[in-house]
Task: inverse folding
């Protein structure tokens, strides 16, 4: 069964595996991380293996993803879909929740919880409660290859993988984004539509994303020039 991750990544991996796919900035910390399609796929595979092997989720399981727009969030989302999960973007009756530490209280009812530090150097979150998994520590031991496992059920907002992929392509067309573009964005991904427009639309047409957290308006024009930006999504 073809998953949403297969649909998004396979054409990119075939066409341009080594070129920049997601470049992430944080204008407060000064961090910059760049991932090729291969590196993004490896992180997604590690996450999918963790979802399946460490947490025992079967295709059709529900994964709550309560994370900001970030390169690690992209890897988590793609990994969850590769494992055949349905992703929800709010606290819900989830089999697994992947969250930042400040949102732990929102997922007290989840069967399993993993916390992301989102640290640029992969540092773990200290002093986590018993029974809560540190993503950075655990994900790195999992394999960076994965055989996808979908069940054809809903993957986001009640829609199937094919429906979400179609919505992403429509969003790209509406924004005038093509596969030749390098897209600058500071949009959040906190709702299904925001996620489709801010991340999935870019991947669905094979474009490249420069995602900025805590954007400094004074840096925008300089960054657009240095990153060879050809399209923008307003925050």
Result:
């Amino acid at each position: 069964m073809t998953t949403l991750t297969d649909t998004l990544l396979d054409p990119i991996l075939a066409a341009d595996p080594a070129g920049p796919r997601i470049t992430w900035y944080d204008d407060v910390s000064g961090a910059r991380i760049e991932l090729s399609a291969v590196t993004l796929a490896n992180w997604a595979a590690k996450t999918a293996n963790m979802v399946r092997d460490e947490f025992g989720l079967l295709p059709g399981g529900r994964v709550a993803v309560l994370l900001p727009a970030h390169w690690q969030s992209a890897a988590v989302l793609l990994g969850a879909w590769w494992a055949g999960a349905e992703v929800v973007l709010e606290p819900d009756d989830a089999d697994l929740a992947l969250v930042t530490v400040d949102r732990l209280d929102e997922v007290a009812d989840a069967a399993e919880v993993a916390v992301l530090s989102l640290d640029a150097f992969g540092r773990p979150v200290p002093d986590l409660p018993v029974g809560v998994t540190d993503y950075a520590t655990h994900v790195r031991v999992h394999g960076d290859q994965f055989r996808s496992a979908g069940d054809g059920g809903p993957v986001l907002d009640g829609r199937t993988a094919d429906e979400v992929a179609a919505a992403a392509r429509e969003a790209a067309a509406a924004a005038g984004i093509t596969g030749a573009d390098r897209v600058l964005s500071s949009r959040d991904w906190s709702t299904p539509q925001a996620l489709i427009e801010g991340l999935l639309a870019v991947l669905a047409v094979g474009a490249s994303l420069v995602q900025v957290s805590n954007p400094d308006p004074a840096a925008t024009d300089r960054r657009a020039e240095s990153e060879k930006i050809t399209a923008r999504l307003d925050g």
